[in-house]
Q: What sequence folds into this?
DNA sequence: AACCCGTGGTT
DNA sequence: TAACCAAGGGT
């Protein structure tokens, strides 16, 4: 029995060597003329390439640029990253999201100091051992910084290739990436692998986009089977996401006599792990615990009395809440939607002394790292007069 | 394999 | 507006 390779299994016919050569030339010529000027394209320093690739995970180029510039300016060497306190790193990352990315980078920087004598590893397998670096990022860094012929298959590349070859595999599945990597191993330019990978991504980001895709404007349209067959609207195939769940929180901005506000550090796992928010009480959990004498509608009086009692019992803190919410804020995550019913409150005695609680004065807000939902609450409260 | 993890921009 | 999307990785 003859063993079928990955491409044969998926009914993908690879181009001839001659066609592959023409494709490389066409794509790289287009890239040389049309590539975007990006700060991380001014260097081959693997550390800087690494930083950019981590920031670019699930994040748009325009968002990343200022973060990237500030990050490498503040921490110009891997050793700086390895030695930086977590608060410094989180402040540099504030607003970018997916905060485990920067925590993992610190872990990886320490790995590099320990296992690779402080020098970013060149071996692809070594790179993959670094925390937070997966198949895409390993391929990106080794191809761009070290000119290795490694595939770097991201969402752009899968979209471009699925249209070029009319591939109907579901690109939301992790296993699909391997098929596209095999295609890239055939196509990648051995002289300029990093540029080749980046060219495909630029093409996906600027021309071969998800929407507003006009294939006749593509520099490689003659290679595009879905264009020639007028089937491009079918690609890429992507399973729809499940709906986001909604959660409602009574959110308490508690102020003491020193005009400081009370924040609570979230658990080390889960959403916004280890970050500060005001005290947030999940409405559902609250009800389940038997605090249910209130009815909703526009009368918050009974809710407020219960919340005051709850804070006294759970946090050992006497507070006086305003009887009406200051506002209702919404924040959408990738998979959750928060509704925050924000109340202002005064601490009648400053005896909240739990480890996870922290009083912070408004004048220190810009020095603290706050996730965006907390920033929204802060902004709301900054506009109000308490009592 | 399926789900978790932020945020901002578009349609 | 709800849904979708963006240079993914960890568990």
A:
């Amino acid at each position: 029995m003859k063993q079928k390779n990955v491409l044969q299994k998926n009914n993908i016919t690879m181009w001839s060597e001659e066609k592959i050569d023409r494709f490389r030339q066409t794509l790289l010529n287009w890239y040389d003329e049309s590539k975007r000027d990006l700060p991380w394209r001014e260097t081959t320093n693997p550390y800087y390439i690494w930083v950019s690739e981590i920031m670019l995970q699930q994040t748009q180029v325009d968002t990343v640029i200022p973060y990237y510039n500030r990050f490498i300016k503040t921490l110009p060497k891997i050793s700086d990253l390895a030695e930086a306190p977590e608060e410094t790193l989180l402040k540099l990352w504030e607003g970018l999201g997916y905060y485990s990315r920067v925590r993992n980078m610190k872990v990886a920087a320490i790995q590099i100091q320990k296992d690779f004598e402080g020098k970013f590893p060149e071996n692809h397998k070594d790179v993959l051992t670094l925390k937070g670096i997966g198949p895409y990022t390993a391929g990106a860094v080794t191809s761009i910084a070290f000119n290795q012929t490694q595939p770097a298959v991201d969402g752009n590349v899968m979209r471009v290739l699925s249209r070029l070859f009319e591939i109907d595999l579901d690109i939301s599945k992790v296993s699909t990436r391997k098929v596209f990597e095999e295609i890239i191993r055939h196509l990648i330019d051995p002289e300029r692998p990093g540029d080749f990978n980046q060219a495909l991504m630029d093409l996906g980001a600027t021309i071969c986009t998800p929407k507003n895709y006009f294939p006749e404007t593509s520099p490689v349209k003659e290679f595009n089977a879905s264009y020639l067959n007028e089937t491009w609207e079918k690609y890429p195939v992507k399973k729809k996401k499940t709906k986001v769940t909604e959660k409602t929180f009574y959110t308490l901005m508690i102020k003491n006599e020193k005009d400081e506000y009370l924040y609570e550090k979230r658990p080390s796992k889960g959403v916004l792990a280890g970050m500060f928010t005001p005290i947030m009480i999940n409405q559902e959990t609250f009800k389940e615990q038997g605090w249910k004498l209130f009815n909703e509608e526009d009368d918050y009086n009974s809710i407020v009395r219960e919340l005051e009692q709850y804070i006294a019992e759970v946090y050992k803190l006497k507070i006086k809440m305003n009887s009406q919410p200051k506002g209702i804020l919404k924040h959408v995550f990738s998979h959750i939607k928060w509704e925050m019913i924000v109340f202002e409150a005064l601490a009648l005695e400053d005896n909240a002394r739990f480890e996870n609680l922290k009083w912070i004065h408004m004048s220190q807000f810009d020095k603290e790292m706050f996730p965006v939902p907390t920033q929204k609450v802060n902004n709301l409260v900054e506009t109000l007069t308490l009592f």
